[in-house]
Amino acid sequence: MASTPGVANADQFRNGQWIFGSIEQEFIRFLNPDNSSRIGEPTSGELLAGSDGRGRWQSFGFDTNRIVWSPDVDPGRGRQIGGFILQKWLTYGVRPNQTPLDSDERGRLKYPTTAEEPAVGGRYNNFQGGAITYEFGKASAYATWGDIRNTWSQNGYETGQYGFPSSDELRCAAAPSSNGTFGAAGQLFKSGSTYITSGVSGPFGNRIGYTAVDAFSKTLKLTGSTKYQTNLNYAVGKWNDTSAGLGKVTITQGASAGSANLTVSDVNIPGGFIGQYSPGNRTLQFNDVYLAPGAPSYNGTSYANDTRRNHTASHELGHALGLYHSCETQLMTPINSTVQGPNPLDRTIYNNLWSN
């Protein structure tokens, strides 16, 4: 039977399923000379897509590939999505009561506007709301959109200074003073763990008027005492780790009061902070109320364990090194976290501050 683009007229019957119209027009692009399919045989019938039901989709190759069609993209042909790119696309359309046969064009990225295409060292699909890119040999693809994608494109995509994306978009602090709030976005990229941010006020750090470091000698000398010394030792070791690209500021402990840059102490302040660095009087304080053994939780989270204490010590020491709050998944996130040492964005900010 002849097929009409955009209309579900039967055209091919393969693997017990009909392939119709505009989806069939994309499918035939993946046929080999022997009539075998490079994206596999159909494993579902044609199904509705979109909240208005105007689109269509069909799975191929045991759902390792899909062809998705929208009249708003191309009335005559659908677009193929497969592999890691398909897996990532599906995560952006999760909805209540979703079934395995739901499509995900209702998510942030919407419908595909290209089939999977070659990148330099990987693959990509463009979508109405952005793109998903996969680097060969990696375990995940990543989406880019908006201002971050625009900056990435202006710098040559994966062949430019940033390379392939290496994280999903992260929620980021909008300003140094933000306490547990986000108003910006950031994303990590492969080349040197660089990052691109959107809507961020400042570079997530400052050597002037905020850090406790002696900028001339690049040293941070600690004095005072804490019952969480093991956790503080852990934090000092993390920031002094030259093998991780850090250690450009030398942190030492046991300085005399007259030569110290930072005084460490314990406090007991119910309803207060967990840990706190104060740039005004150069102090780093640990709050016994929430850190001591058997202490109550803070906003539903217990900090009376070494994972949380290590995070608190490393995070507050990061502030003393000049780092502001930055993005989720990083040590310097402004939200509760179990990250115990500097992650890629933390290291990038640190090196921006102290590499020269």
Provide structural commentary.
The chain is an alpha+beta fold and 356 residues long. It has helices at 21-27, 83-91, 146-154, 229-239, 288-291, 306-320, 344-354, and strands at 10-14, 17-20, 47-49, 55-60, 65-69, 79-82, 117-119, 122-127, 130-135, 142-144, 170-172, 184-188, 195-198, 219-224, 250-253, 262-267, 275-278, 283-287. A hairpin with a 4-residue loop joins strand 17 and strand 18. The chain is elongated. It starts with 9 loop residues before the first strand and ends with a helix. The relative contact order is 0.09.
Low-confidence stretches: 1-10, 98-103
Query: Alpha-carbon distance between the termini?
Result: 71 Å
Chain-averaged pLDDT:
90
Shape annotation? elongated
User: Strand-and-helix sequence, N→C?
Assistant: EEHEEEEHEEEEHEEEEHEEEEHHH
**Secondary structure tally: strands:** 18
Helical proportion, percent range: 10-25%
Strand content: 15-25%
Characterize the main sheet. 5 strands, mixed
Strand order of the biggest β-sheet: 15-14-16-18-17
User: Taking Cα atoms only, what radius of gyration do you get, to the nearest Å?
Assistant: 26 Å
Helical stretch count?
7
Structural class: alpha+beta
